[in-house]
Amino acid sequence: MSKPSEFWQDGGGFGDEYIFLISGCLEVNMNDQCFFRMLVSMCLLYLEQNIPLKIWVIVNRMCIGRMLISLSLQNQSANGREIIMASLNQRVRTWQFNIHCPAHQRNWTHISQRIAEQACQGFPIRIIVIDTNDELITVEASFLIGDRKPIWPSLLSPPRQLRHQSSNTQVVVSIIPTGVRAEIGGFAGDATPSMNLLASVCDYLVVNPNTVTASDLYFASDNIQYVEGNLICRFMLGQLGLLPVCQQTVGLVVEKPREENFLRNVQNAVNAMRTVAGVDINPVVVTDKPIRTTCTFSDFGHASGEYGELDELYAGIDVVCDTAVQAVGLVTSLDVSDAVRNAYYAGQPIPNPWGAAEAILTHLTTSFYPVTAAHSPLLLEAGHTMFGTLGDPRDGAELISSAFLCSMVRGLSQSPKVLPIENLMEHTNDSSISVSDVSAVVMPESVVGNIPFFTAMELNIPVILVRDNSTIFNVTPERIGIDLSKENIHIVNSYAEAAGLLIALREGINPHALKRPVSAVELTHLV
Fold first, then answer.
1. What is the C-alpha separation between 359 and 128, in angstroms, rounded?
2. pLDDT in tens, 271-306
3. With CB atoms counted within 10 Å of each terminal CB, which end of the chain scores lower, N or C?
């Protein structure tokens, strides 16, 4: 790799070290940090060649000078590599790409192999199929690039066939993806009644947090297992098991807010959950500086995000996880433009802009720590409380809240413990569960491009798709090229119908016997 000499001047006479001098002639825009990003990218080119470096900065805009000088003052003896990587040690990159995968190979084993061939840098933390045709699949994949070591195998691993099974335990997994404007569950905990109905006909219902999280309201049934989306994927892949418990201690990581009164608001909410709900919340860690997460939308219309000071986030999680806590709540700001915020609350047909960014933040947590996790937004401005706004009834819980975290804390306090699959056999006498116990997976019909769907198909677990829970996506089994007559997939109109189908499966009734017309038996003649 050649040196980027057009941007830098080498300062001679310093042995092995290259001294770079940046003249102050550049216009600097602190809002998009173009200058700082250019500086870091140029340094990384040198660091990839293992060239030690120091940095001298002379700029006209004092704000940039202060920013870089403060990095140097944090560790006077640090070399250039440590200084730069202290700011960008962990970063998220999201790719969208096409993979060649004909219809007959569309299971997770084949799809994950094709994704791995893309050689994307980093550790995969979220993978979804966002479009498809006869030969190609369009994938959105987010990877963490950094020096942290994951505690789980890769999401690109094939599903595992497990022998462990709890006797007579019916476990159902229900997925409602976030950031896709699901008609049911795409707002503020509005899928809770539907999930409680499903939970009433099984022993355990595993759901992702956004399905039942409703700002300060939480009414999910006691047998609902509140499990972050990344962990559900790994649960379905056979990488981990779940141990339902009555009560978890919850630890919180709170981003340093812009104003002190926002932090006091969080403290009041925490104290309310401790005194009214009796939840054990400890520790509550406040970061030293903002984390900076920005909510965006992809070219395909679903919510996405950009992520800033992830090292600061991990520093807070490190403190929490040094205790015995196994459930971690993140309370961080999510920057959304006023235009998008107002359009969303005015009922315009756009996805919840916060959901996908929240999902990535929790995926970043559960990929590297043996905990359950969930996220709630932290106020950036007092006006964001939306006090007095009359919006969509499904957003009512958000419109009356300012803390947003009570529901998350309650859900985490009832979340299961996470067990590496190798340790699951130690819990055969209790209520531990694995993918071998899953009797069905339920999700909207139009968003089947996810790991739980492909894994369930590969493991021959019945899949129930709810047609009436529409989304902005159109990734249906038919679009993927799946022959419904040959797969264990059932299409229903509503969650009420899905509950009836779960009862049929529990009672050993063939679902096809409930439909008309009834197909005639085909005879096989021996010749």
1. 12
2. 999 999 999 999 999 999 999 899 888 888 888 888
3. C
